[in-house]
Amino acid sequence: MKSRVFILALLALAVGCSNGANAPEPAAQPPSSAAHTGGTLPADDASPTGNDAEQAAPSSDPNSIGGMVGKVVPSGDTPSAQPAQASDAIVGETVKEQSFPVEFELAGKSEFITTAEDVDGRPQLHFYVKKADAVIELDYEAESPGAYYSVAAVAFRDVSGDNRKDMIILMEYVTGAGQMGAVPVSQLLIYKQTESGFVQDQALEEEARAGVPYRILTIQDVMTGLATAPADSITHAWKKLKPGRYELEGSTELQASTLTVEAVEGDRLRFRLDAIYAADEEAAERGGVNIGNIESGEATLSEADMIFRDGDFELTISLIASNKLYVSDNGVGYFGHNVWVKGMYEQSQ
């Protein structure tokens, strides 16, 4: 009887040890959904292959963002990863027409988000890259703090020649100062996609601006600027100016001005200018129209502008954009009473 009890005790001990060995461990906690400030977005589930496998090791935390974002790094320097920080909060209302899904070579499928935050009655723009719950903000400094800013364009192009999509952002603002105070000015932002994150490259921004002399830029202008030597930028831009009619913004049937570009030949611009002014419709009907015109005008390149001279009178024609000109004069009387030619001219469709 005692031997039977002993055998049963051994069996019970063996079963207990077996259950202890197979007892479930505490459930693994899911990774935190909090993002980190920085420029490295989480990698996709699919591992990169080829050269990308060496350049982009998948993150151990699928929601982490490490590295840097929006930091200005001199051209040619390689940014180093920095400790992860707290998530960037998305501030302001989303600007839907300037927010897009995008797939980056290193970070994979993401969202580019533009928002506008109301600060003292003016929109302060913010730019974010979001993947899953990870959010980073692209920092920048406004060229004209306090000015009214808007987003003109966003594009994803390889501007650094590494076969990765970089970010090009064009904002516009007006200064309100000087004779062109109401004419928008473009501020260009370029963020390179690197192993350490999205890094603002001011050297590329300056290179693009030096390659095109326009006040208002398009995405194509940025790409052209990056491919054009600064010494050739002004002559190259004038050669690209299309012949045709350019109309003064705000022209009406009673007050209007049209500049016709006939040709650009070397450092000279051949043009014609026709402007009118009438006090009212009755005056216009009875022929009370003041006229100002320049027939067979020829302007000569001076720095970045074309200058037409006739005696003491000077007319300046400036490139504002690839399809826009700004005309001004030195105030010497030349046209009929109240005939107005100053302002922005846009090419007629």
TrEMBL record:
It comes from the Bacteria. Transmembrane segments: none annotated. Residues 23-86 are annotated as: Disordered. Residues 23-35 have a biased composition (Low complexity). Residues 1-23 form the signal peptide. The keyword Signal applies. Keywords: Signal. Residues 48-63 have a biased composition (Polar residues). The keyword Ribonucleoprotein does not apply. PROSITE patterns: PROKAR_LIPOPROTEIN. This is Lipoprotein.
